[in-house]
Amino acid sequence: MIKQFKLLIEGYASIVANEWIVNSSTCFIETDSSKIIVDPGCNSDLLLQKLFENNIDVNDINFIFITHSHIDHILNFKLFHNAKLLDGYFLYDGDRLVIHNSAIFNDITILQTPGHTNDHCSMIFEFNNIKIAIAGDVFWWSDNEEIKFDTIDLIYREDKFASDFNQLVESRKLLVLNSELIIPGHGKSFPTTKLREKL
Ligand SMILES: [Zn+2]
């Protein structure tokens, strides 16, 4: 059972004077047995502030899940001294590394969603009767882009960092078809209902 879910940080991305200012969305999930941070991001001051505001102790976190290996999503993982690191394939505990099956948490599904990167994964779970997908950079855009959430354009929009655009489109469809609310890696969360009808 998912006891708590919080979007701690809404990811952002903008270009200022030829420089990206960027940080991933960061989520907190509490299950019966685990406290999980998904994509701890790279802005450590902001993350520590949000943890404090939400009464979350860094030492209580036992898992960090990363959607993919881009640094703007993972740099802060070392703040969590008691946490094991998890991606879509492996569980890292210090120098120990095991392959996990994707059902490592009860009530959370880990899906392979390649295309932005080859190793990209997403999480899907139900909280307060809403099926939520933490999509990482399957969906992301910069702050100044105008996004029409309920149009099919969202599925086919360009990603200049994509490793395989066709795979990315399939991963986007998979998440839209299997969730009601999507949390992108950078940008505002959006409901999928209207978009799903168009697939
Ligand atoms: Zn990103």
Mean pLDDT: 95
Please work out how many helical segments DSSP would assign: 5
What are the bound molecules?
zinc ion
Number of strands: 14
What is the CATH superfamily classification? Answer: Ribonuclease Z/Hydroxyacylglutathione hydrolase-like
Distance between the termini: 30 Å
Question: What portion of residues belong to β-strands?
Answer: 35-45%
Strand order of the largest sheet: 1-4-5-6-7-8-9
Number of domains: 1
N to C succession of SSEs: EEEEEHEHEEEEEEHHEEH
User: Under CATH, the topology is which?
Assistant: Metallo-beta-lactamase, Chain A
Structural class: alpha+beta
Helix percent reads 10-25%
Rg calc: 16 Å
Shape: globular
CATH class: Alpha Beta
Oligomeric composition of the shown chains: single chain
CATH architecture: 4-Layer Sandwich
Sheet bearing the most strands, described? 7 strands, mixed
Low-confidence stretches: none
